[in-house]
Amino acid sequence: MFNRSIIQSLRLLKSLKTLSLHYNSLEGSFPAKELSVFEDLEMLDLSKNELNGSLIVQGLCGLKKHEELDLSWNSFEGSLPSCLYNLTSLRRLFANHSKLESFQFRCDNEKVEIEIENSDWVPLFKLESLVISNCSLNKLSHQLLTFLIHQHSLRKLDLSHNGLKGPFPDWLFRNNTRLKSTIVNHNSFTGHFHLSLCLNSTSVIDVSNNQLNGKLQRNIGEILPNIWYLQLSNNSFIGSLPSLFGNMSLLDTLDVSLNNFSGEVPKDLFVGCYGLSILFSGAMPNELPNFVDLDLLDIDSSEQPTNKSFGTSLEKLLRDTSSVSKRLTLPNEDGREPVKELLDYCRYRIFGRISPIFC
To answer: Where would you find the membrane-spanning parts of this chain (predicted)?
Structure first.
C-alpha cells in the first residue's frame, strides 16, 4: 500500500511547486486528497510506479495552478476525472495507464499541450473512447500516427479542433471496425475520403472543415449503411453526389455545403433516406417528393433561379441568404401540415397562391 506518511510529511511545505515521486516502487491507491494543501503545486510526477485503482477527484482537481501532470506507467483504472478540464493552467499531461478505457480531455484555449506522437512509445491501454478536442495536440509535428495505430477497440473518437495535418487517416476505420462516432472536424487532413470496409456500427462521421478533396466513392451508401449523421462540409470535394446515398435509410443529417460538387442532389437520396430531417446542399431537383420528415432545407448554393416544387411540409424552411433570387412553387391545399416558420421570403419570386396551410 502507498505510505501516506510520504505526503503527510510534506504538508508543512505549503509553497511546494514541484513534487516528483517518479520511478519508485509505490503500490496501491494514491491518496490524492492529501494534495489539497499544496495550493501552489505546478508539477506532479507519479510515473513508473505500481499505483492502481481509480483516480480520486478530490485533491487532484483542486490544483488550480497545476501545469504538468504525469500519471504514466502505472495501473490506474477507468477514466480520467472530468474535472481535469477545469485545470486551466494545465499544459502537459501524461497518462499511459494499462487499464484505461476512456480518455476525454477538452481544452478551452489550445494552451494545453498533449503529445501522443512518439515512435518509441507503445501504449499499454486499449481505449474504447478517446476525446481530445481543441488542444495543442502534437504541437511540433501536428501528425497523427503511432499512438492510434495500436488501438483496435475504439467506439468513440473525437480529435476535433486540433490543427492535425497529413493524409486522412482511413486506417482508423480499418483498425476499429466497431467505431460508432468519429469526429475530426477543424483540422487540416488532406486527400480522399475513401473507406474500404463496410462499417455497420458507424452512425456519426464529421470530417468538416478540413482539406479533403476528390470524388466521394460511389458505394458510400453500402459502406455506411447505418449512418445517422454525415458532415462533409467545407472541404474541396468534387464531382456529383453518389446515388447510393439513397441506401442510407437511417440518415437524419447530411451537410455537403461549401464544396465543389456539381450536378443535382440525386433523387434517390429523397426516396431512400426516410428519416432525413436536415439537408444542407446545392442544386436541388426541380420537384421533391412528399418528404414528410424534412424540417430544415438550405438551397443557398444554387447559382441560377430555378423552379422548385416542394411536395413536402417543412417545419422550418431555411431560405436563401444571398442576393440570388429563387423561384419557388409552394404546396397547395393538399399539403399535410402547415409550415410554422418562413424565413427571408422577400428574397424569392413566389409563384402561385399562398395556401391557407401556411397560416
So the answer is: none
